[in-house]
Design a protein that fits this description.
The chain is an alpha/beta fold. Helix content is 36%, strand content 24%. It has 16 helices and 18 strands. The longest helix is centred in the C-terminal third of the chain and has 21 residues. It is globular.
Length: 425
Protein backbone atom coordinates (compact mmCIF):
# COMPACT_ATOMS: atom_id res chain seq x y z
CA UNK A 1 0.00 0.00 0.00
CA UNK A 2 1.12 3.52 -0.78
CA UNK A 3 0.18 6.06 1.89
CA UNK A 4 0.21 9.79 1.14
CA UNK A 5 1.04 12.10 4.01
CA UNK A 6 -0.70 15.35 4.97
CA UNK A 7 1.48 17.14 7.51
CA UNK A 8 -0.23 20.13 9.13
CA UNK A 9 1.46 23.08 10.81
CA UNK A 10 -0.05 26.45 11.69
CA UNK A 11 -3.24 25.51 9.87
CA UNK A 12 -1.48 24.69 6.59
CA UNK A 13 -0.26 21.59 4.80
CA UNK A 14 3.53 21.66 4.84
CA UNK A 15 6.56 19.68 3.85
CA UNK A 16 9.66 20.08 5.99
CA UNK A 17 13.22 19.00 5.34
CA UNK A 18 14.72 17.22 8.34
CA UNK A 19 11.66 18.22 10.35
CA UNK A 20 12.54 21.93 10.52
CA UNK A 21 13.23 23.59 7.17
CA UNK A 22 10.00 24.65 5.40
CA UNK A 23 10.14 23.58 1.76
CA UNK A 24 6.54 24.15 0.69
CA UNK A 25 3.05 24.78 2.05
CA UNK A 26 -0.52 24.49 0.78
CA UNK A 27 -3.96 25.45 2.05
CA UNK A 28 -6.17 22.71 0.57
CA UNK A 29 -6.12 19.70 2.95
CA UNK A 30 -9.68 18.62 2.06
CA UNK A 31 -8.87 18.55 -1.65
CA UNK A 32 -5.68 16.61 -0.99
CA UNK A 33 -7.43 14.10 1.28
CA UNK A 34 -10.09 13.37 -1.30
CA UNK A 35 -7.49 12.92 -4.04
CA UNK A 36 -5.10 10.80 -1.98
CA UNK A 37 -7.94 8.56 -0.77
CA UNK A 38 -8.33 7.15 -4.29
CA UNK A 39 -5.06 5.28 -3.85
CA UNK A 40 -4.92 4.22 -0.21
CA UNK A 41 -5.01 5.40 3.37
CA UNK A 42 -3.90 8.94 4.18
CA UNK A 43 -1.53 9.79 7.03
CA UNK A 44 -2.60 13.02 8.75
CA UNK A 45 0.08 14.35 11.09
CA UNK A 46 -0.44 17.31 13.44
CA UNK A 47 3.07 18.72 13.69
CA UNK A 48 2.08 21.45 16.15
CA UNK A 49 0.57 18.92 18.55
CA UNK A 50 3.62 16.71 18.18
CA UNK A 51 5.85 19.60 19.28
CA UNK A 52 3.50 20.75 22.03
CA UNK A 53 2.83 24.02 20.25
CA UNK A 54 -0.93 23.82 19.82
CA UNK A 55 -3.42 21.75 17.86
CA UNK A 56 -4.92 21.60 14.37
CA UNK A 57 -7.81 19.35 15.37
CA UNK A 58 -10.47 21.65 13.87
CA UNK A 59 -8.77 21.32 10.51
CA UNK A 60 -8.24 17.59 10.90
CA UNK A 61 -11.80 16.59 11.92
CA UNK A 62 -13.41 16.97 8.47
CA UNK A 63 -10.55 15.02 6.86
CA UNK A 64 -11.44 11.94 8.90
CA UNK A 65 -14.76 11.50 7.07
CA UNK A 66 -13.40 12.63 3.71
CA UNK A 67 -10.79 9.86 3.53
CA UNK A 68 -9.54 6.72 5.26
CA UNK A 69 -7.10 8.41 7.62
CA UNK A 70 -4.50 7.33 10.11
CA UNK A 71 -3.74 10.16 12.53
CA UNK A 72 -0.61 11.03 14.45
CA UNK A 73 1.11 13.89 16.20
CA UNK A 74 0.89 14.61 19.92
CA UNK A 75 -1.41 11.69 20.78
CA UNK A 76 -0.38 10.95 24.35
CA UNK A 77 -3.44 9.41 25.98
CA UNK A 78 -5.82 6.55 25.16
CA UNK A 79 -8.71 9.00 25.58
CA UNK A 80 -7.34 11.19 22.77
CA UNK A 81 -7.03 8.12 20.59
CA UNK A 82 -10.59 6.96 21.29
CA UNK A 83 -11.95 10.41 20.46
CA UNK A 84 -10.14 10.45 17.11
CA UNK A 85 -11.42 6.95 16.30
CA UNK A 86 -14.97 8.08 17.07
CA UNK A 87 -14.47 10.99 14.65
CA UNK A 88 -13.53 8.57 11.87
CA UNK A 89 -9.79 7.84 12.18
CA UNK A 90 -8.99 4.32 10.98
CA UNK A 91 -5.69 4.04 12.85
CA UNK A 92 -3.78 5.99 15.47
CA UNK A 93 -0.05 6.68 15.23
CA UNK A 94 1.69 6.80 18.61
CA UNK A 95 5.15 8.35 18.83
CA UNK A 96 7.29 9.90 21.55
CA UNK A 97 4.96 9.08 24.46
CA UNK A 98 5.54 5.36 23.92
CA UNK A 99 9.26 5.64 24.73
CA UNK A 100 9.29 7.67 27.95
CA UNK A 101 9.71 5.99 31.29
CA UNK A 102 6.78 7.24 33.44
CA UNK A 103 8.46 6.07 36.64
CA UNK A 104 11.40 8.43 36.21
CA UNK A 105 11.29 12.10 37.13
CA UNK A 106 14.10 12.83 34.71
CA UNK A 107 12.57 13.50 31.28
CA UNK A 108 15.70 12.06 29.73
CA UNK A 109 14.97 8.52 30.92
CA UNK A 110 13.67 6.27 28.15
CA UNK A 111 12.23 2.77 27.77
CA UNK A 112 9.32 1.23 25.92
CA UNK A 113 6.28 2.32 27.93
CA UNK A 114 4.39 -0.98 27.82
CA UNK A 115 1.90 0.21 30.43
CA UNK A 116 0.82 3.05 28.16
CA UNK A 117 0.64 0.76 25.13
CA UNK A 118 -1.53 -1.68 27.07
CA UNK A 119 -3.87 1.18 27.95
CA UNK A 120 -4.12 2.12 24.27
CA UNK A 121 -4.89 -1.50 23.35
CA UNK A 122 -7.70 -1.65 25.92
CA UNK A 123 -9.18 1.61 24.65
CA UNK A 124 -9.00 1.22 20.85
CA UNK A 125 -7.69 -2.29 20.11
CA UNK A 126 -4.30 -3.47 18.87
CA UNK A 127 -5.42 -3.48 15.23
CA UNK A 128 -5.79 0.31 15.26
CA UNK A 129 -2.37 1.10 16.73
CA UNK A 130 0.61 2.16 14.62
CA UNK A 131 3.88 2.75 16.48
CA UNK A 132 6.12 5.40 14.96
CA UNK A 133 9.70 4.20 15.28
CA UNK A 134 11.61 7.23 14.02
CA UNK A 135 15.27 6.26 13.97
CA UNK A 136 18.62 7.79 13.18
CA UNK A 137 21.31 5.23 12.35
CA UNK A 138 19.30 2.49 14.03
CA UNK A 139 18.51 4.40 17.24
CA UNK A 140 15.01 5.63 18.08
CA UNK A 141 14.67 9.41 18.43
CA UNK A 142 11.79 11.49 19.84
CA UNK A 143 10.67 15.10 20.32
CA UNK A 144 10.61 15.90 16.62
CA UNK A 145 13.82 13.87 16.14
CA UNK A 146 15.77 16.14 18.51
CA UNK A 147 16.27 13.67 21.35
CA UNK A 148 18.08 10.34 21.17
CA UNK A 149 16.61 7.63 23.40
CA UNK A 150 19.41 5.10 23.28
CA UNK A 151 16.81 2.49 22.29
CA UNK A 152 17.74 0.12 19.48
CA UNK A 153 15.22 0.18 16.62
CA UNK A 154 15.00 -3.57 16.01
CA UNK A 155 15.14 -4.74 19.62
CA UNK A 156 12.50 -2.22 20.72
CA UNK A 157 10.19 -3.12 17.84
CA UNK A 158 10.36 -6.81 18.73
CA UNK A 159 9.15 -6.06 22.27
CA UNK A 160 6.50 -3.58 21.07
CA UNK A 161 4.97 -5.95 18.53
CA UNK A 162 2.72 -7.45 21.17
CA UNK A 163 0.84 -4.15 21.42
CA UNK A 164 0.70 -2.81 17.86
CA UNK A 165 -0.42 -3.95 14.43
CA UNK A 166 2.00 -1.82 12.44
CA UNK A 167 5.29 0.04 12.61
CA UNK A 168 5.89 3.34 10.84
CA UNK A 169 9.64 3.48 10.35
CA UNK A 170 11.02 6.87 9.39
CA UNK A 171 14.64 6.99 8.33
CA UNK A 172 15.34 10.34 10.00
CA UNK A 173 18.70 11.06 8.39
CA UNK A 174 17.07 10.83 4.95
CA UNK A 175 13.69 12.48 5.72
CA UNK A 176 12.83 15.25 3.27
CA UNK A 177 16.11 14.89 1.40
CA UNK A 178 14.86 12.64 -1.42
CA UNK A 179 18.22 10.88 -1.38
CA UNK A 180 16.79 7.38 -0.97
CA UNK A 181 15.79 5.42 2.11
CA UNK A 182 18.25 3.24 4.05
CA UNK A 183 17.15 -0.14 2.68
CA UNK A 184 19.39 -2.07 5.06
CA UNK A 185 17.61 -0.62 8.11
CA UNK A 186 14.25 -1.48 6.54
CA UNK A 187 15.40 -5.05 5.88
CA UNK A 188 16.55 -5.47 9.45
CA UNK A 189 13.22 -4.25 10.83
CA UNK A 190 11.18 -6.25 8.31
CA UNK A 191 13.04 -9.42 9.19
CA UNK A 192 12.62 -8.90 12.93
CA UNK A 193 8.83 -8.44 13.16
CA UNK A 194 5.75 -10.01 11.61
CA UNK A 195 3.54 -6.92 11.87
CA UNK A 196 3.08 -4.56 8.94
CA UNK A 197 6.01 -2.24 8.29
CA UNK A 198 5.52 1.11 6.56
CA UNK A 199 8.71 2.81 5.45
CA UNK A 200 9.25 6.55 5.09
CA UNK A 201 12.10 9.01 4.83
CA UNK A 202 13.99 9.83 1.64
CA UNK A 203 11.99 7.63 -0.76
CA UNK A 204 12.32 9.32 -4.15
CA UNK A 205 12.03 6.72 -6.93
CA UNK A 206 9.53 4.20 -8.21
CA UNK A 207 12.27 1.58 -8.08
CA UNK A 208 12.53 2.05 -4.31
CA UNK A 209 8.78 1.63 -3.95
CA UNK A 210 8.91 -1.60 -5.95
CA UNK A 211 11.81 -2.89 -3.85
CA UNK A 212 10.00 -2.07 -0.61
CA UNK A 213 6.86 -3.81 -1.89
CA UNK A 214 8.89 -6.92 -2.75
CA UNK A 215 10.19 -6.87 0.83
CA UNK A 216 6.57 -6.85 2.04
CA UNK A 217 6.59 -3.22 3.18
CA UNK A 218 4.17 -0.37 2.62
CA UNK A 219 5.54 3.08 1.87
CA UNK A 220 4.55 6.54 3.07
CA UNK A 221 5.26 9.42 0.69
CA UNK A 222 5.70 13.10 1.42
CA UNK A 223 8.29 15.33 -0.22
CA UNK A 224 8.66 13.27 -3.40
CA UNK A 225 4.89 13.36 -3.89
CA UNK A 226 4.41 17.09 -3.29
CA UNK A 227 7.35 18.11 -5.47
CA UNK A 228 6.11 15.95 -8.33
CA UNK A 229 9.10 13.62 -8.36
CA UNK A 230 6.76 10.67 -7.82
CA UNK A 231 3.24 10.36 -9.22
CA UNK A 232 0.85 8.67 -6.80
CA UNK A 233 -0.84 6.58 -9.50
CA UNK A 234 2.54 5.30 -10.71
CA UNK A 235 3.56 4.55 -7.14
CA UNK A 236 0.36 2.56 -6.58
CA UNK A 237 0.95 0.51 -9.71
CA UNK A 238 4.56 -0.25 -8.83
CA UNK A 239 3.55 -1.42 -5.34
CA UNK A 240 1.40 -4.27 -6.69
CA UNK A 241 2.56 -7.88 -6.92
CA UNK A 242 2.66 -8.23 -10.69
CA UNK A 243 5.12 -11.14 -10.63
CA UNK A 244 2.74 -13.32 -8.66
CA UNK A 245 -0.14 -12.58 -11.03
CA UNK A 246 1.87 -12.88 -14.27
CA UNK A 247 1.09 -9.29 -15.13
CA UNK A 248 -2.71 -9.62 -14.92
CA UNK A 249 -4.39 -8.72 -11.64
CA UNK A 250 -8.03 -9.53 -10.73
CA UNK A 251 -10.29 -6.55 -10.01
CA UNK A 252 -13.57 -6.63 -8.06
CA UNK A 253 -15.98 -3.76 -8.72
CA UNK A 254 -18.08 -2.90 -5.68
CA UNK A 255 -20.84 -0.30 -5.41
CA UNK A 256 -20.53 2.38 -2.73
CA UNK A 257 -23.27 0.62 -0.73
CA UNK A 258 -21.24 -2.60 -0.72
CA UNK A 259 -22.92 -4.64 -3.46
CA UNK A 260 -20.49 -6.59 -5.66
CA UNK A 261 -21.10 -5.72 -9.30
CA UNK A 262 -18.55 -7.54 -11.45
CA UNK A 263 -15.02 -8.87 -11.72
CA UNK A 264 -12.41 -8.54 -14.42
CA UNK A 265 -8.67 -8.40 -14.99
CA UNK A 266 -6.32 -5.47 -15.40
CA UNK A 267 -2.71 -5.10 -16.46
CA UNK A 268 -0.47 -2.12 -15.68
CA UNK A 269 -1.88 -0.15 -18.58
CA UNK A 270 -5.48 -0.70 -17.51
CA UNK A 271 -4.83 0.35 -13.91
CA UNK A 272 -3.05 3.46 -15.17
CA UNK A 273 -5.92 4.33 -17.49
CA UNK A 274 -8.40 3.82 -14.65
CA UNK A 275 -6.69 6.53 -12.61
CA UNK A 276 -6.26 8.77 -15.65
CA UNK A 277 -9.88 8.57 -16.84
CA UNK A 278 -11.55 8.19 -13.44
CA UNK A 279 -13.55 5.27 -14.85
CA UNK A 280 -12.83 1.58 -14.30
CA UNK A 281 -10.79 -0.03 -17.09
CA UNK A 282 -9.85 -3.65 -17.71
CA UNK A 283 -7.76 -5.73 -20.06
CA UNK A 284 -9.91 -7.90 -22.29
CA UNK A 285 -8.31 -11.35 -22.40
CA UNK A 286 -10.48 -12.46 -25.31
CA UNK A 287 -9.65 -9.41 -27.45
CA UNK A 288 -6.22 -8.83 -25.90
CA UNK A 289 -6.79 -5.09 -25.56
CA UNK A 290 -7.63 -2.35 -23.11
CA UNK A 291 -11.32 -1.63 -22.59
CA UNK A 292 -13.24 0.72 -20.37
CA UNK A 293 -16.39 -0.66 -18.80
CA UNK A 294 -19.36 1.03 -20.48
CA UNK A 295 -17.42 2.39 -23.44
CA UNK A 296 -20.16 1.09 -25.76
CA UNK A 297 -23.24 0.88 -23.51
CA UNK A 298 -22.57 4.11 -21.64
CA UNK A 299 -22.91 2.28 -18.32
CA UNK A 300 -19.53 3.35 -17.01
CA UNK A 301 -18.18 2.74 -13.51
CA UNK A 302 -16.86 5.95 -11.97
CA UNK A 303 -14.07 5.12 -9.55
CA UNK A 304 -14.21 6.49 -6.01
CA UNK A 305 -11.19 4.60 -4.69
CA UNK A 306 -9.12 1.47 -5.26
CA UNK A 307 -7.59 -0.75 -2.63
CA UNK A 308 -5.11 -3.61 -2.93
CA UNK A 309 -5.60 -6.70 -0.79
CA UNK A 310 -3.09 -7.77 1.87
CA UNK A 311 -0.95 -9.68 -0.65
CA UNK A 312 -1.15 -6.90 -3.28
CA UNK A 313 -2.32 -9.39 -5.91
CA UNK A 314 -5.99 -8.35 -6.16
CA UNK A 315 -7.82 -5.02 -6.31
CA UNK A 316 -11.13 -3.77 -4.95
CA UNK A 317 -12.56 -0.82 -6.89
CA UNK A 318 -15.31 1.13 -5.13
CA UNK A 319 -17.41 2.62 -7.91
CA UNK A 320 -20.52 4.57 -8.80
CA UNK A 321 -22.46 2.79 -11.54
CA UNK A 322 -24.31 4.87 -14.12
CA UNK A 323 -26.56 1.98 -15.13
CA UNK A 324 -26.88 -1.83 -15.23
CA UNK A 325 -23.46 -3.46 -15.10
CA UNK A 326 -24.07 -6.87 -16.65
CA UNK A 327 -24.36 -7.34 -20.42
CA UNK A 328 -27.67 -9.13 -19.72
CA UNK A 329 -29.15 -5.90 -18.41
CA UNK A 330 -28.95 -6.97 -14.76
CA UNK A 331 -27.67 -4.51 -12.18
CA UNK A 332 -24.92 -6.98 -11.14
CA UNK A 333 -23.08 -9.67 -13.07
CA UNK A 334 -23.93 -12.03 -10.23
CA UNK A 335 -27.59 -12.11 -11.19
CA UNK A 336 -28.93 -9.94 -8.40
CA UNK A 337 -31.14 -6.91 -8.60
CA UNK A 338 -29.97 -3.64 -7.16
CA UNK A 339 -30.07 -3.75 -3.37
CA UNK A 340 -32.65 -1.37 -1.92
CA UNK A 341 -30.47 0.48 0.54
CA UNK A 342 -31.00 3.74 2.39
CA UNK A 343 -28.47 5.33 0.02
CA UNK A 344 -30.50 4.15 -2.98
CA UNK A 345 -33.70 5.56 -1.47
CA UNK A 346 -32.04 8.94 -1.15
CA UNK A 347 -30.75 8.80 -4.73
CA UNK A 348 -34.32 8.18 -5.98
CA UNK A 349 -35.69 11.05 -3.89
CA UNK A 350 -32.89 13.34 -5.09
CA UNK A 351 -33.74 12.53 -8.70
CA UNK A 352 -37.44 13.25 -8.11
CA UNK A 353 -36.59 16.67 -6.69
CA UNK A 354 -34.17 17.52 -9.50
CA UNK A 355 -36.21 16.07 -12.35
CA UNK A 356 -39.88 16.18 -11.30
CA UNK A 357 -42.17 14.12 -13.48
CA UNK A 358 -45.96 14.58 -13.84
CA UNK A 359 -47.79 12.91 -10.98
CA UNK A 360 -44.72 12.52 -8.78
CA UNK A 361 -45.78 12.77 -5.14
CA UNK A 362 -42.20 13.24 -3.97
CA UNK A 363 -41.81 16.33 -6.16
CA UNK A 364 -44.69 18.02 -4.27
CA UNK A 365 -42.99 17.76 -0.88
CA UNK A 366 -41.97 21.29 -0.06
CA UNK A 367 -40.25 22.07 3.25
CA UNK A 368 -43.43 22.72 5.20
CA UNK A 369 -45.31 19.66 3.97
CA UNK A 370 -42.43 17.24 4.47
CA UNK A 371 -41.96 18.38 8.09
CA UNK A 372 -45.67 17.88 8.77
CA UNK A 373 -45.48 14.37 7.34
CA UNK A 374 -42.44 13.46 9.47
CA UNK A 375 -44.30 14.47 12.65
CA UNK A 376 -47.45 12.66 11.52
CA UNK A 377 -45.62 9.43 10.66
CA UNK A 378 -43.56 9.51 13.88
CA UNK A 379 -46.80 9.53 15.87
CA UNK A 380 -48.21 6.67 13.79
CA UNK A 381 -45.10 4.57 14.42
CA UNK A 382 -45.57 5.13 18.15
CA UNK A 383 -49.22 4.11 18.06
CA UNK A 384 -48.77 1.09 15.77
CA UNK A 385 -49.61 -2.20 17.53
CA UNK A 386 -48.81 -5.17 15.32
CA UNK A 387 -45.56 -6.21 13.66
CA UNK A 388 -46.89 -5.44 10.17
CA UNK A 389 -48.23 -2.05 11.25
CA UNK A 390 -44.85 -1.06 12.66
CA UNK A 391 -43.10 -2.14 9.45
CA UNK A 392 -45.54 -0.11 7.34
CA UNK A 393 -45.38 3.03 9.45
CA UNK A 394 -41.60 2.83 9.93
CA UNK A 395 -41.19 2.67 6.14
CA UNK A 396 -43.32 5.84 5.80
CA UNK A 397 -41.28 7.60 8.48
CA UNK A 398 -37.98 6.64 6.87
CA UNK A 399 -39.20 7.86 3.47
CA UNK A 400 -40.35 11.27 4.74
CA UNK A 401 -37.31 11.68 7.00
CA UNK A 402 -35.05 10.99 4.02
CA UNK A 403 -36.99 13.51 1.95
CA UNK A 404 -36.49 16.10 4.69
CA UNK A 405 -32.78 15.29 4.88
CA UNK A 406 -32.46 15.61 1.11
CA UNK A 407 -34.23 18.98 1.02
CA UNK A 408 -31.90 20.16 3.78
CA UNK A 409 -28.73 18.97 2.06
CA UNK A 410 -28.03 16.21 4.58
CA UNK A 411 -26.72 12.93 3.18
CA UNK A 412 -27.32 9.42 4.44
CA UNK A 413 -23.56 9.08 4.82
CA UNK A 414 -23.44 11.99 7.26
CA UNK A 415 -26.11 10.41 9.46
CA UNK A 416 -24.37 7.03 9.40
CA UNK A 417 -21.07 8.73 10.25
CA UNK A 418 -22.69 10.33 13.28
CA UNK A 419 -24.06 6.97 14.42
CA UNK A 420 -20.61 5.49 13.91
CA UNK A 421 -19.11 8.27 16.05
CA UNK A 422 -21.57 7.57 18.88
CA UNK A 423 -20.90 3.83 18.66
CA UNK A 424 -17.14 4.39 19.06
CA UNK A 425 -17.28 6.95 21.85
Amino acid sequence: MVIASIDIQNGKVVQLKQGTELVLEREDPLVLAEEFDRYGEVAVIDLDAAMGKGSNIKLIKPLLRKAECRVGGGIRTPEQARELVSLGARKIIIGSAAFRDPSKKNAGEFRLNTELLEAFVKKIGRQRIVLAVDARNGEIVVDGWKTSTGLNLVETAQVAEKYVSEFLFTCVEREGTMTGIDMEQVRLLRGAVSSTVTAAGGVSTLEEIETLAEMGCDVQLGMALYTGKINLADAFIRSLNWKKTDGMIPVIAQAVDGQVLMTGFSDREAVGETFKRGNLCFHSRTRNKLWMKGENSGNILGVKKIRADCDRDALLAVVEASGPVCHTGAWSCFGTNRSYTWEYLQSVITDRFRNPSPGSYTATLDDGLVREKVMEEAEEVCTAKTHDEIVWEAADLLYFTTALMTRSGVSVTEVLDELDRRHKK
